[in-house]
Design a protein that fits this description.
By secondary structure, the protein is mainly α. The chain contains seven helices and no strands. Helix 2 packs antiparallel against helix 6, helix 4 packs antiparallel against helix 5 and helix 5 packs across helix 6. The relative contact order is 0.11. The mean pLDDT is 88.
Length: 150
């Protein structure tokens, strides 16, 4: 296994092929989600099923569905934090994949502040708590809650 990983790190064509395969898998997933109706058949959240509380990602499937259909206001209603963070996550994944594909190394993670990452995790944790408070205005953070206002 270690020999294979070392060989992939040295071979740029293999890295390009792996990144293209990962991109193809993501594209297939996006096409599936585009035609999958999460309103009729929602993607289940294990955390919500077990605890009855919304996790920070609850509503993300419907939000991604809405984004794929260019309904950004609907996406924001289902999961505002994910809708804001999704472009940043996409930029990070694309930059990391391009860096690895070209150099075979990781030059991106060292340029990201650890303090920034800690703050993002704190915001996600607080968001997960606030969206479960059943009192106005916190109930607006529940999936679909902002649709009541907009």
């Amino acid at each position: 296994m270690m020999k294979l990983a070392a060989r992939i790190r040295r071979n740029r064509k293999m890295r390009v092929a792996l990144v293209l395969c990962a991109g193809a898998v993501c594209l297939i997933g996006a096409v599936y989600l585009y035609f999958h109706n999460p309103y009729s058949y929602p993607l289940p959240c294990i955390f919500y099923s077990i605890t009855g509380f919304y996790c920070p990602g609850c509503g993300a499937g419907r939000a991604c569905y809405s984004i794929l259909h260019l309904r950004f206001a609907d996406a924001f209603c289902y999961n505002p934090l994910m809708t804001i963070l999704l472009p940043l996550i996409g930029i990070y994944i694309a930059a990391r994949a391009i860096d690895w594909m070209i150099t075979g190394g990781n030059h991106i993670d060292g340029k990201i502040s650890v303090k920034l990452l800690v703050w993002i995790l704190i915001v996600i944790f607080i968001y997960g708590i606030l969206r479960n408070i059943p009192v106005f205005p916190f109930n607006l953070l529940a999936p679909g809650g902002l649709a009541q206002v907009l």
